[in-house]
Each structure stands twice: as structure tokens, then as C-alpha cells.
Design goal:
Structural class: alpha+beta
CATH topology of the largest domain: hpI Integrase, Chain A
Shape: globular
Strand order of the largest sheet: 1-2-3-4-5
Helix content: 40-55%
Number of strands: 8
Distance between the termini: 65 Å
CATH class of the largest domain: Mainly Alpha
Strand content: 5-15%
Length: 411
């Protein structure tokens, strides 16, 4: 088995019977046969039951339909999945159960966000128990089981839950079918079930309710949670990415103030810097106290620390259960709506990390930090004017005794 630098020319010249290994991506192979040349990748994986390591091989496609670079990209993805725990040997088992399939799919989830993985696990443990021991082959041959579960969930848990559970099941089934093409068609398909069309959520702070929202905000006893909710409204950022902010990603040096989001929705490729407005800087300077003072969360690396969570940062904005405070996405929606009234749409999209390339000229849209800061400042000023309550008053006191601070965490 020769190790070479695989190129289009080398692949074209490969003779029947040759097996060529790429010297650039360890584990990538080109197997040349009489009528076809097949790309594969392989590595050793451990059997979860016996502990014995075996070589697992996955087909990636045929040359020249799949180019050398495409084969390398696919190989890297599949090898990473195997490294993280997906076992192709197990996936090819025709008796693999639904429970095992979703566990295997999650184990090799290199392109899924933590919240998506959490949702799949929740669906598996909470709603898919009737199918846990059903084999994938049986499920594919008897899709009525899926339809029955879908209708039951719709009736008992609602349309959104039914859709979410079906998406989790469908993703895992498709993932295992890539490794075992002999499996029947995915039972979560049109003709078996029809996903519910859900109305788009439009909740935001109404024009006449800004002052009431500000008053409700002041009733949140915990200063970190109060500041976090205000930060979400004045930046339009997503909840999870904001909760996971670290001080090492925040710059408060005068004239260079920004917050770096290394892993937002869309993954590291969507990472971006948010220039900060004076209003947002004031919020961060306020909350900094709670990561430094001995009576709060001294030495915390998190911008929004919590002594009650396993991670050390706020994990749930539970105040959303109070309808008048709204959930984080409604605050994001409010920011965007107000932003359109004050700033150019492209800047609003840029600030909230939405795609803002609608036509070819948008490829050249690279705003300066100062221009973004200027428009964010204008949006924040407009929102605070509608609330009609001074920012200092909205944030409240930031000096507590340890007993007082501990009591605010219990709300």
C-alpha cells in the first residue's frame, strides 16, 4: 500500500489493483479496481462492548466524481467523527436500535451545536422511549410506527415538540444510513408524516410597554441576571453565546472596546467581534464587579457568573417565565425592530451576526468598528429613551454583603 501525495493526475494514473494512501490526510485511501476508483477513509476504533480495537473503513465516493480535495474534506470529517466515538462497525449492524443509533449519531457529532445535541438527547430520553428497542431496519420497513408516535406527540405535547422529535430521529437515521446503505428509506419522510407548519413568533416589546418592561426589570433581585437581560436587549445577541462570554474575550481599553464571540450559532466559522456602545460598556463595567469581589464570584472567568450552576456561568434566563420580561429571542427581535428605525439594515444585520450579503456588491461590505459602534450607540439610545428610566437605575446597586448577594441568587 503506497503512500503518495494524491493529486488528480496520480488518481487518473492509478492502475487496477493499486491502493494508494494520501500523505497529506492520514487514513485517506484511493482503491483502484478494474471499472471504478473508490475513495475511502479508515482508522482504528474501539468496540464499546469488547474493548477490542478494529480497523473501520468508510466509502467516500468515486473518482473522478469526487475530486481529491473533496475526498480530503470528507475524510477529515469522517475521521473526526470516528475519533469522537462514532463506530462504523456498530452502525452497519442491521439490528441497531433507535436508541443506539441516536447515541452513535451524537457521539460523532462534529458539526452540531451543544444546544442541538442537548435537544437530541432530551428527545431520546423523554419522547422516543416507545421506539428505543426497535431496530432501524424494522422501523424503516414499518414507518407506521413513526406516524403513530408523531400523531401521539402532536396530541399530547404539541406541534413544536412533535416536529423536534421527528427531526432528531430523522437526522440519526440518515447518519446511520450513510454507513449502512442497505437500510430502508428514512421513515420520517413526506407521505408518512407531514411536519407541522408553525407560525413565526413575533413577540417583542410593544411601543407602549417599554416603560413597564424597565420597571419589571428592576424587580429582578440578582444583579448579574438583571444586567444580562439588559445586555441582551441592547445588543440583540443570542442567549447561549452571550451566557458563555468570558472576560478574556472582552476588551474595555478606551477606543478599542469590543466583545469577541468565538463560537456563536454557526460555529467557529461564524466568529465575530462586536464593537461596544457606551451603554453596553457601562453594563459590562457594572457586572465586572461580580467576578472580582470576594462576596460574589471572585476570580470567575465568566462575564455572567453564577455560583449555582455546574458550569460557573448563568445557564438559564429563568426570568422569561415572567411574561412581562419576555424571553431572550423576543428581546433580540425587539432590538432588530428598533434598529431598523434608527440604523441602516446592513448594520443591524451585522451587529446581530445575521447574513447581510443579499447581492454581489454586499461582498464588499466590511464596516469599520467605529461605524458599527456609532449605529449601535444610536439604537441603544433610542431603546433607553423609550424605556424612560436611567441606565444607572436600571442596573441598580452593585455593592452587597455576601449574605445579601447570596439571597439574590435564590430568586
Amino acid at each position: 500500500m503506497a503512500v503518495v501525495r494524491l493529486t488528480q493526475e496520480v488518481a487518473e494514473r492509478a492502475r487496477p489493483g493499486e491502493m494508494l494512501c494520501d500523505d497529506k490526510v492520514t487514513g485517506l485511501l484511493l482503491i483502484s479496481q478494474k471499472r471504478v476508483k473508490t475513495w475511502c477513509c479508515q482508522r482504528e476504533v474501539k468496540d464499546p462492548e469488547t474493548g477490542i480495537r478494529k480497523t473501520a473503513r468508510i466509502k467516500l465516493g468515486h473518482f473522478p466524481e469526487v475530486t481529491v480535495q473533496e475526498a480530503r474534506d470528507r475524510a477529515k470529517e469522517e475521521l473526526l467523527k470516528m475519533e469522537k466515538g462514532r463506530n462504523p462497525h456498530t452502525a452497519r449492524d442491521p439490528k441497531m436500535t433507535v436508541k443506539r443509533a441516536i447515541e452513535e449519531y451524537i457521539a460523532g457529532a462534529v458539526d452540531l451545536q451543544p444546544r442541538t445535541i442537548e435537544g437530541y438527547r432530551y428527545a431520546l430520553d423523554k419522547y422516543l422511549t416507545p421506539l428505543h428497542n426497535t431496530s432501524l431496519s424494522d422501523l424503516g420497513e414499518k414507518p407506521a410506527k413513526v406516524r403513530e408516535l408523531f400523531l401521539t406527540l402532536t396530541k399530547e405535547k404539541g406541534k413544536a415538540t412533535a416536529n423536534g422529535v421527528m427531526r432528531a430521529l430523522s437526522a440519526a437515521y440518515n447518519g446511520m444510513r450513510e454507513l449502512n446503505p442497505d437500510l430502508p428509506l428514512n421513515p420520517v419522510r413526506k407521505g408518512v408524516i407531514r411536519m407541522h407548519k408553525l407560525p413565526k413568533r413575533k413577540t417583542r416589546i410593544a411601543e407602549e410597554n417599554f416603560t413597564a418592561w424597565g420597571a419589571a426589570l428592576q424587580t429582578i433581585l440578582n444583579p448579574v441576571r438583571r444586567a444580562l437581560r439588559l445586555f441582551l436587549l441592547l445588543t440583540g445577541q443570542r442567549d447561549t453565546a452571550t451566557q458563555e462570554m468570558k472576560w478574556c474575550h472582552v476588551v474595555l481599553e478606551k477606543g478599542k472596546e469590543k466583545a469577541h464571540y468565538p463560537d456563536p450559532k454557526g460555529g467557529p466559522e461564524a466568529a465575530f467581534d462586536l464593537p461596544l456602545s457606551p451603554q453596553v460598556i457601562q453594563i459590562l463595567e457594572f457586572v465586572r464587579t461580580f467576578s472580582t469581589e470576594a462576596w460574589a464570584s471572585p476570580g470567575s472567568e465568566w462575564v455572567w457568573p453564577s455560583n449555582d450552576s455546574a458550569s460557573g456561568h448563568v445557564e438559564e434566563t429563568k426570568e422569561q417565565r415572567r411574561k412581562e420580561l419576555l424571553n431572550p429571542h423576543a428581546l433580540r427581535r425587539t432590538f432588530i425592530s428598533e434598529g431598523y428605525n434608527v440604523a441602516p439594515a446592513k448594520y443591524v444585520s451585522y451587529i446581530v451576526n445575521h447574513g447581510c450579503k443579499d447581492n454581489i456588491t454586499d461582498e464588499y461590505f466590511e464596516p469599520t468598528s467605529e461605524s458599527v459602534r456609532k449605529h449601535l450607540t444610536a439604537i441603544d439610545q433610542s431603546i433607553l429613551e423609550k424605556i424612560g428610566i436611567d441606565l444607572d437605575k436600571l442596573l441598580g446597586p452593585k455593592v452587597f454583603t455576601s449574605t445579601q448577594f447570596r439571597s439574590t441568587s435564590e430568586e
